[in-house]
Every structure is written in structure tokens, then in C-alpha cells.
Amino acid sequence: MTWKRDLTVLGILVATLAMGEGLVASTALTTRARSSRTVPQGGNLMQDIPLAAGEWQGSDVPVREEVFEILETRNILQRRYVNHEDEIVFLDIVQSETDGRATHPPEVCYIGEGVEIVKKDRLNLNIGGSALIVNRLVVQDGGRQDLVLYWYKAGDLKTASYWGQQCGLLLRRLKGMGAQAALVRFSTHLGANSLESSQERIAGLAEALKYNLGI
């Protein structure tokens, strides 16, 4: 039966969470939206992200058909935002209502494309007064280095852990509740900029989109 299968999978996930990296994931499950406004469960997150946000103006980047096929969802947003100082930040969102596998860790794609991961850790990011634990990557492709900050969503849950997201999705399913799985990723060119100033740039755009992203 479906519920028995879900309980079995949940048990495996919980066991995984109790080992190694899973300990971080279990604490991440308690991170909830602190804003008074949350994204409706039945809505489409893509429709809630405006092109104009504060000092930022966005333009959509076409998604290749092969990306839709690989991720098995058409709910993919790729957008390039520019502010008044001509600083550029990219926002990518992958969303699925049926399968959390579409929101797999970005490192999988970077490694598959031959991009080197120079730095990988987690960061407590301040977004307009809201603290959010995110994953931080510094990636290098040839002579170019980019800063990448990303996190996962499962309904109103926000977590830096992929397994935390998957466990959250299963728990909601067992309760008969729907939940959209999403990966939210920001990236910007490092260049001559410091890591801190690049993080502030991303945080500035994230703050402008704070309520749209349910932060």
C-alpha cells in the first residue's frame, strides 16, 4: 500500500538524517517562514516573481528544452536582474508539485558540466532582517568565478538541506497535505569583488523579492 511504502521511505530518510550530514538536515526542518505573508500552497511560485523589484529590473533567460526534459518539470524560471549600478544577479527557480527529485543539488549539474567547485559551505544570510541558512558555493569555469547561494523549499519549509526538503515533503504527504518542492538559487560574478560584497548584492535582490519568495 502507498502509505506503507511512504512510511518505509520516511524511516530510511530519518535514519539517514541521524547520520553525518543528516543531523544538520533535521535541525533545518524547524526553519519556517517568519513573514506574515506566505506563498499560497496551490499557487505557482513562478507567477509570483516580478520582473521589477525595487532597484532591480529583470529579464527572462530562455530555458533549453533539454533542461525541461532532464528535470521533468516545466516550472523553471531563469532570470537576469540588473540594478542601477549595472550589477548583475541571476535567479533560478526549479519547482515541482509531484517530484522532489527535480530540485536536486546544483553541484550535480556543475560537476557534470566540468565546472570546478572551489568553496562549499553554509551561510547564515540576513535578508531584510530575516535570517536564512543557505548553501554557499564558489564555482570556477575557466577564468571566471561565480558566487552561488541556494536553498530548498517544501511548502512553507525553507532549508539548506536537500534531505531535509525530501523528508518535509514526505511528512506533508503522510498528513494528506500538498506541498510544492522548489530550489531557489542566486548567483553573481565575483570578479574583483570580495565575497562579502557579492553576498550583499545577492541579499539585496533577495530582500527586494522577500515576500514573493516567502522569506
What does this 3D model show about the protein?
By secondary structure, the chain is of the alpha+beta class. The chain has one domain. The protein has six helices and nine strands; from the N terminus they run ααββαββαββββαβα. The protein has helices at residues 2-17, 22-28, 65-71, 106-112, 162-174, 195-208; strands at 52-53, 56-60, 76-82, 88-96, 116-127, 130-141, 144-154, 157-159, 181-189. Strands 1, 2, 3, 4, 5, 6, 7, 8 and 9 form a nine-stranded antiparallel sheet that branches. Strand 3 (76-82) and strand 4 form a beta hairpin. Helix 1 (2-17) packs across helix 2 (22-28) and helix 1 packs antiparallel against helix 5.
Topology:
Elements (H helix, E strand, L loop, with lengths): L1 H16 L4 H7 L23 E2 L2 E5 L4 H7 L4 E7 L5 E9 L9 H7 L3 E12 L2 E12 L2 E11 L2 E3 L2 H13 L6 E9 L5 H14 L7
Antiparallel strand pairs: 1-2, 2-3, 3-4, 4-9, 5-6, 6-7, 7-8, 7-9
Observed structural traits:
single chain, 215 residues, alpha+beta, nine-stranded antiparallel sheet, 6 helices, 30% helix
Q: How many domains make up the 3D coordinates?
A: 1
Question: Structural class of the helix and strand makeup?
Answer: alpha+beta
- What percent of residues adopt helix (DSSP H or I)? 25-40%
Topology as a string of helices (H) and strands (E): HHEEHEEHEEEEHEH
Reported for the largest beta sheet, the result is:
9 strands, antiparallel
Strand content: 25-35%
Alpha-carbon distance between the termini? 36 Å
Weakly predicted, low-confidence segments:
1-43
Task: Please tell me the overall pLDDT.
Answer: 80
Number of strands: 9
Q: Helix segment count? A: 6
Shape: globular
